[in-house]
Amino acid sequence: MRTRRRWSAADVPDRTGTTAVVTGASSGIGLHLAQELARHGAHVVLAVRDPDRGVAAAARIQSRVPSAQLTVRRLDLSRLASVRAGAEELRDRFPRIHLLVNNAGVMWTDRARTPDGHELQFATNHLGHFALTGLLLDSLRAAPGARVVTISSYLHRLGRIDFSDLHGERRYSRYRAYNQSKLANLMFALELHHRLAESGAELASLAAHPGLTATGLGRDFPAPVRRLGSPLAPLFLQPAAAGMLPGLRAATDPGARGGEFYGPLGVTETRGAPGLVRPGGAAVDPRARRRLWEESEHLTGVRLRP
User: Which positions are annotated as active-site residues?
Assistant: First the structure.
């Protein structure tokens, strides 16, 4: 019996004439996603917190893909004012957006509050992307076959949404806060799919996770973790170019459908070829997803109506 070939970036169809917005595209998974989308003809918007790093990332992509069409836009997901301003710029410049990849994130940060009063990891990883998606919804609806792809983590399986202490005010654990935020990413993607399907919208919502991947997220790790992990990292972490493949497949595979979740197919989903994986139990709880949606609307002031 013939074995099916592994899906790779070579399977991405032509994206000429499409516009893709990738958050956190200045490094890691986001940078590689932006590069592959541009290689296949998309006009890619690098939505980044630091415009200087975004310009450097664009130059790096251009050196590898001379034909790349790239735009850099400032977008700080930890500040709702920045999300609103960035979304307004994007709507004005791009009335049709064919792909939004909610990729940017922070991991295992010290306790910190955003200017809006939210816990930093929950705000950056989830609330900022929730608001951005809602604010760009008209541009996404206007593009035939558009998709929203939200990047979660295999650690969502360890997450729990603590509705009584979303911002870690009573007790804070950098690890618990991260797991909660990545579970929220997946719950949002699945609930968005459910609401889009109910409304009959053509827009699709999918999710992906990169397994264990070497990215810039390690900069926020506590010093003892960095010292212990650095020598062992090559044994456990796959390169960012491999980690971005599940997200790229969710974003571009013609056979992918709304509500699907892509990740590495290896043991424990930490590495391997990109394919369909199953979300953890908490992510498929419809009551919890609805409650998270309502809380997110309240905290962001963005009423997301697919």
Answer: 178
